[in-house]
Amino acid sequence: MKEHNILERFKRIWARTGTRMGFVTLLVVLFWLKTLLAYFVDFRLNLSDPFQFLIVLLNPIATTLLLFGLALFFKRARFFYPFLFLIDILNTLLLYINVIYFREFTDFMTVSTMLGYSKVDQGLSGSSLALTSPHDILYWLDLVLVLVLLATRRIYIDPRPLNKRVGFAVMSAAFLAFAVNLTLGEMDRPQLLTRTFDRTYVVKYLGLDAFTVYDGIKSQHTSELRSHAKKSELSGILKYLHKNYAAPDKQLYGVAKQKNVIVIHLESFQQFLINKKVNGQEVTPFLNKLYKSKSTYSFDNFFHEVGQGKTSDAETMLETGTYGLPQGSLFTQLGNDNTFQAAPAIFDQQGYSSAVFHGNVASFWNRSNTYKNLGYQNFFDASYYDTSGDKSLGYGLKDKLLFKDSVKYLQHLQQPFYVKYLTVTNHFPFTLDKEDSTFKTPDTGDKTVDNYFKTAHYLDQSIKEFYAYLNKSGLAKNSMVMIYGDHYGISNSSNKSLAKLMGVNPDDWNDYDNAQLQRVPLMFNMPGYKKGKVEHTYGGEIDVLPTLLHLMGISSKKYLQFGTDLFSKDHNPIVAFRNRDWESPDYTSVDGTIYSNKTQQEIHPTGKLKEKIDKIQKHVNQGLNYSDSLNQKNLLRFYHPKGFKAVDPQDYNYADGLSKAEKLEKKLGLKSTSLFSRNSDRSTEKLYVTDAPEATHKSTDSNRIKITNQDDTSGK
Ligand code: GP9
Ligand code: MN
């Protein structure tokens, strides 16, 4: 009896498919199910809580309803049905090519990739057939079945047109659903659309259709800017940079010529940690030693200058000598097709090999694509290490393991090399497993602030272990190590809790203090060197590239870089922040308010001083504007520095890095300069000592890496 009822009910519902509204509903539901299949089986969206799960369940509905609902405006059945089918087929196609693309690239297809404009990810390698899977049939089966049912009259064709008002009502419902969706997304991830971390984010919160439209509008905007750009627009930039150029200091030019360059990117590491004691214990004893060593040039008035692109902005400045973008990340927005004349390529053309070591997934900040345009030869991302179980935290492999596990690749790189280590453990929310630390944290009442010292301490230890290896293996004496902090770890909203630890009354804490806390460390360490010291020059991340090149004996003059050599007597000590605030040796500007650094008080400049301040602001604006126009209009494609060979991203492929390096060693034979070859073809891995307990843990199936990124300005 009950079964009979259910059957009856089904029949009644099914009969509705014979109406236009019912038929649209049927296709919307089927498409919704297919999207969920893609979300949960093929895409890895890394859902971290039930709220995100809910968002993902809802997000296909709005756009599907909107697109399919358009059919309701057709009066005649012979337009209504084919149109609806066409929309369904096209939308399924979009979904399906993304499924295939994701299997190869762990990423979503951008409009410029689809249209073949992107210089990287030129399409699927090998045959796409190899990327198909048996369950793919489910993506198309519904279309076939519905067609058959229509043909066999199991679904009736409804000749009655609907009133336009029904169409409008459905459209309104779709817009409403989208608004709800966007609100939920913004609640979970503030500034979702402006910051653009990773394509997964937008798909996760708004769905694939919305992502494609959003991406299409953005790339349309960029390509319009570009198509109107002319070579002549370079002339203003060239004039500005020429006027600002600072010639290198003769004594220091080339002190590290032909040495290996090892860049260590200290995640979220601020200058105040240097020489800081908590509960009587030094937080970063090893870095403190390096900081004051005679073999190091350290800077204590060096500032980060990142915007919303955080780590990727720091990378942009250090690799290209240009600023990050006013909104979002240059890596994600322009990294796929911009022309760069960047550090890896400059070093390459001096006979260097190059690599990045990073324990997070390659798609984060669109690195895997951008690095190819920067000219990086190797990218040893998370896929090169065992990141399972407790070996990783949210942003990737723990630092101690990253340094240790990098050695098996590093030792095979031809020397001299230019390599970069992107650490991750000292990242918001600064959590660490118990087994990793015995450091006694302070007690400020703010967990984020307290834990920051613990993860910073861990980072310090990991660098100490790496240095021990550099010394034992002999790499140290042939290398220059450049260490810098990428940006703040403690956001302005938490600075009051920090104040207590800095010996300042939290009630007196103000914008001036926040600005001063944007100092991060910068050190050039040359083991064996004796003339190092702590420099008090004011500078920022934009100044690093020309400084580094000059120490390496490479002229920066022909390149378009917006900073100046920190060691040059002509160095410009004005530090521009991405929001147009600035810092100089005498004054600080925050939101248009000027402070005197001497008195730490707000001032109201008049007369000559006002003129001076206005001039500084003009200089800051000009630098940022010119840099933005250079990048957004991709003007470097018109600029051909003499002797510089343009980068072709297609020359790079980051799979099988180790076997490629080994092949090269074999080919070069006695001429191979890798550490491994120099060590009589013996591995140096045994020289590495770490106290990381996870180093001996067995690999497991679980993995903590999730593609999440904390917007620190949004709070917790
Ligand atoms: C992730 C890491 C963190 O790969 O670089 O980036 P951030 O959140 O600091 O910009
Ligand atoms: Mn960072």
TrEMBL record:
The lineage of its organism: Bacteria, Bacillati, Bacillota, Bacilli, Lactobacillales. InterPro entries: Alkaline_phosphatase_core_sf, LtaS-like, OpgB/LTA_synthase_biosynth, Sulfatase_N. Belongs to the LTA synthase family. This is LTA synthase family protein. Keywords: Cell membrane, Membrane, Transferase, Transmembrane, Transmembrane helix. It is found in: Cell membrane. GO terms for molecular function: transferase activity. Pathway: Cell wall biogenesis; lipoteichoic acid biosynthesis. Residues 694-704 have a biased composition (Basic and acidic residues). PANTHER family: LIPOTEICHOIC ACID SYNTHASE, PHOSPHOGLYCEROL TRANSFERASE I. Residues 705-716 have a biased composition (Polar residues). It comes from the Bacteria. The chain crosses the membrane at residues 21-41, 53-74, 81-102, 137-156, 168-185. CDD domains: LTA_synthase. It is a multi-pass membrane protein. It is an enzyme of class 2 (transferase). Residues 259-554 form the Sulfatase N-terminal domain. Residues 680-716 are annotated as: Disordered. Gene3D superfamilies: 3.30.1120.170, Alkaline Phosphatase, subunit A. Pfam families: Sulfatase (PF00884). Its EC number is 2.7.8.-.
